[in-house]
Amino acid sequence: MFSRCSAQLSPKPCLPAARASGETACLRHTNDLLFNETKFFFGRDLDALCDNSSVNNPDDLNCFVDDGPTRRYSLASRLFSNILKPESVDRFMTVTFSTGAGRYRACGAEGFPIEESTIDVNPDMDPASAVYLRTPKFDMRADRNVFYTIVIMDATYGYIHGLFVDFPTPRAVIPYIPPLNFRNITNTFVFVVYAQPERDMMLEPRTLGVMKTPALAKQFRLNDFATDHGLVGPVAINWMDVKSDPWAVQQVADRSGGSDNYCIMFVMEAFRKADFQFLSNNFSTLDTVLDITFPHPAAKFTVCCQRYSLNASVLSLNPVINQTTDNEILRTEPTFIANSTALRISNASRTYTVLAVSNKNTEIEISSPRRPYLVWMVVNIPEEKLATLHDDHSKAFVPYKLPSFSLNANPKFVAQRRVYYMLFEQSSPIDTSTVDDLALSNSSVCSASSPFKGRCKFDVQKFISDNRMTLRGINWITAVKESLTKFNMVKTGEPEDGVCRDEPLYSRPCPADNKPTVAPRPAGRSAGASAKSGSYITVVLALCFSFFSLLLRSFQ
């Protein structure tokens, strides 16, 4: 038992290491935080950012707390109407979530990583991503012949996320529902534990109906629930702060049939961190997710003294994870679908332009960091056609054309480029009779022999300004020189010695025993992976192959 004082043995006494020496300091700290009116999203600090109408407006994503006329600033006020006896909370319930490594698809893209982890829930934890909070395990000191009820709640809105009875052998009356936080704020989810009067507790049907119905969340009161069922406590309270992630947003979008799609906020964050020298850093107008995919067939080929086998697959662009892929995969026109988000109300009268550009981080003849190469331009697209743009190639006034890499393009041969796909809302229809002039007037003149007339060093900012357009969506990927690109370069006449000079197994002529078949690295991988790891593995395989060949010959 303890009183509401603020003395603490550790700045964060509820972390696992601090709890190892005892729970007393953590329980005291928990009690202080329960009555703290500035600790949580719904606290007093929100009043400085949002007026009363905003905090009760469900369309205001960053303010809505649904409090009605009387604000509730603390956990104690939101959960217990401040009717809480601190001395009843006399133990700590440990809640853990264990997650294996993997990847998931969300927001129209593959490859979001999941790291192997175990999360310990406690009032001092850092906010956790929703994807790691899917299957809880409970542990708590239980009195002899006493059984407990665990209620899991969204502290902001009162939604029930799980109800378990008869702990320490818990039975799920309402199975656990992961916290699908889809907003760019941190939300708090609480685990409240009561002692039951007996085992095999049965719930009053009306109460259970209210708890299972999110629309009735405001009718549920923890204090009334405890009184109606003869529960004692709460004897333990724990909570976790949860931040949004693409997994949670995708779950919400799937359940709403796509109408509640907030994926754009992750693109906005990636855009904020990126360095787009050719484009203004104003990302406030972004409200549309661009789902861009590149199918590519299976292929088998030999280049740089190595045989490759490439499986057929579809590459989905994902700007959030800093993707890279073989440049050759991006050289065919993609499937382009613009998905309106929950921030965007459809309007059939609006028209759009799709623009794709490419540049390197150094200046070459056809592009520079501030003046990229024009890959693609489609104008005057009605809003209702954005989902079927890939079915109508006739509207591409500048057809899709991404160059291959060339040894002659730059003496330093910078073997990567970034390709950007953008959606602009037009202020009015563009006069297509002058579309050639439109492209030429915004580009520099290439050399007379260049096949890229009207595409070189395109002035994106001037194009946006002249046509009074607004950026609505953007996606991008880094294209690199890998096996398929090298094969195409050699096939089209580039000298193999120059193309393959960074390959450790390459020599002229190719060693007869030095041609293992390898699979190219997966398309669209994260750029965080080592670009050299594949080469090192190939070297080891080749050396092992040569060693066993020599060994075999020694026995002949």
Descriptive overview:
With 556 residues, the protein is of the alpha+beta class. It is 19% helix and 27% strand. The strands form six sheets. The protein has a seven-stranded mixed β-sheet with strand order 20-19-18-21-22-16-24. Strands 5-11-10-7-8-9 form a six-stranded mixed β-sheet, with no helix packed on it. It has a three-stranded antiparallel β-sheet with strand order 4-1-6, with no helix packed on it.
Number of helices: 13
Mean pLDDT across every amino acid position: 80
- Report the count of strand segments: 24
> What is the radius of gyration?
30 Å
Cα separation of the termini:
83 Å
Q: Which segments are poorly predicted (pLDDT under 50) over 5 or more consecutive residues?
A: 1-9, 409-413, 528-556
The structural class is: alpha+beta
- Report the major sheet: 7 strands, mixed
- Helical percent range? 10-25%
What is the beta-strand fraction? Answer: 25-35%
Side by side, the strands of the main sheet go: 20-19-18-21-22-16-24
The gross shape turns out to be elongated
SSE diagram, text form:
Blueprint (H helix, E strand, L loop, with lengths): L15 H4 L4 H11 L17 H4 L19 H6 L13 E6 L2 E5 L2 E6 L2 E5 L6 E2 L6 E4 L8 E7 L5 E8 L3 E4 L12 E9 L9 H8 L9 H7 L3 E12 L2 H10 L8 H10 L14 E9 L2 E5 L2 E5 L2 E4 L6 E4 L8 E6 L10 E9 L13 E10 L13 E3 L17 E10 L9 H6 L19 H7 L3 E11 L2 H9 L4 H4 L17 E2 L6 E2 L6 H22 L2
